[in-house]
């Protein structure tokens, strides 16, 4: 059963509420079973932070899938509107869905405001309405709500919320989002969504017809080189955040940044030909990045 179908069942009252322990177990199972690299990341997490991270992940996973797997934009908007209502009920101290039953103690323990969760929902709602971006500032505003909130929540979980850390975190999260966009240019066009800003396509002389036909031209390769360099700039600008994190959390933050940079290196390795090949970070690469991140933090080398 898809999450969209599960949501309909919850709304009809066809699924019994879970206890807090059952809800946390469901969040843990979703996090460890859905995303292949999450077990690699969670290895470096302090034990007392793993469940809070699972709870936040469950919220993000549900919100994302309600937007992507609803079948139609209209149904997606309806379900995301319901998810917003469930979020508001949670902040009123009356969680109903199991995700929020698991999440509420995390919200209270770390004093997480509602804004980043609501921003994520608004970004997924925008996905149902906007399929092409005219300018990079418009795309960056989307990243501000689709990616940056995750980093801000993580700062709360790490108890490291400062203005400077927020700026670095936003830069990292925007860079990661852009790296994923350039990794998935072909997949996104299937949906269809286009994240390559029109102003950039025009600047490099890559017309809409070539985009629709997925043509790899010299103009496209130069466009992709530009976008990869831009994403790399965001990621490297946020590197100082790593040393602001406590203990082993430095490894996690460094691993996220290095994972994004690795995606960009893979795009470069295939000469930016993302129409023909989807670059990816394999599990083996992720483990090597983890080892290197751990070595950097334990020895202080390579910073």
Number of strands: 0
Total helices: the number is 16
Average pLDDT reading: 89
User: Helical content, roughly?
Assistant: over 70%
Q: N-to-C terminal Cα separation, in Å?
A: 46 Å
Name the structural class: mainly alpha
Regions with little confidence, pLDDT below 50 for 5+ residues: 36-40
In short, what is this structure?
This protein is mostly helical and 303 residues long. It is 71% helix and 0% strand. Helix 2 packs across helix 4, helix 5 (73-91) packs across helix 6 and helix 15 (249-269) packs across helix 16.
Topology (SSEs and partners):
Layout: H1 3-12, H2 20-34, H3 38-43, H4 47-68, H5 73-91, H6 98-110, H7 115-127, H8 136-146, H9 148-158, H10 163-183, H11 185-190, H12 198-203, H13 208-212, H14 218-237, H15 249-269, H16 283-299
Mind explaining what this structure looks like?
- With 303 residues, this protein is an all-alpha fold.
- 71% of the residues lie in helices and 0% in strands.
- Helix 2 (20-34) crosses helix 6 (98-110), helix 4 (47-68) packs antiparallel against helix 9 (148-158) and helix 9 packs across helix 10.
Primary descriptors:
mainly alpha, 0% strand, 303 residues, single chain
């Amino acid at each position: 059963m898809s999450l969209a179908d599960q949501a309909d069942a919850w709304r009809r009252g066809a699924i019994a509420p879970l206890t807090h322990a059952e809800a946390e177990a469901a969040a843990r199972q979703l996090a460890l079973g859905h995303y292949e690299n999450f077990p690699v990341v969670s290895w470096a997490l302090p034990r007392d932070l793993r469940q809070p991270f699972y709870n936040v992940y469950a919220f993000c996973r549900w919100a994302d899938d309600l937007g992507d797997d609803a079948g139609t934009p209209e149904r997606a908007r309806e379900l995301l509107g319901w998810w917003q209502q469930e979020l508001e009920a949670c902040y009123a101290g009356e969680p109903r869905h199991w995700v929020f039953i698991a999440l509420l103690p995390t919200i209270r323990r770390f004093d997480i405001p509602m804004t980043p969760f609501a921003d994520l929902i608004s970004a997924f709602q925008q996905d149902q309405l906007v399929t092409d971006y005219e300018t990079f500032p418009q795309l960056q505003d989307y990243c501000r709500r689709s990616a940056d909130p995750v980093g801000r929540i993580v700062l709360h979980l790490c108890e490291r919320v400062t203005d400077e850390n927020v700026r670095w975190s936003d830069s990292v999260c925007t860079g990661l989002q852009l790296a994923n966009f350039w990794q998935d240019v072909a997949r996104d066009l299937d949906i269809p969504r286009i994240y390559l800003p029109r102003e950039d396509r025009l600047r490099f002389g890559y017309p809409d017809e070539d985009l629709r036909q997925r043509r790899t031209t010299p103009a496209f390769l130069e466009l992709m080189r530009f976008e990869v360099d831009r994403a790399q700039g965001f990621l490297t600008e946020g590197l100082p955040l790593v040393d602001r994190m406590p203990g082993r959390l430095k490894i996690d933050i460094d691993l996220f940044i290095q994972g994004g940079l690795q995606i960009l290196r893979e795009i470069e390795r295939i000469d930016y030909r993302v129409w023909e090949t989807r670059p990816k970070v394999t599990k083996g690469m992720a483990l090597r990045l983890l080892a290197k991140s751990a070595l950097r933090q334990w020895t202080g080398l390579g910073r």
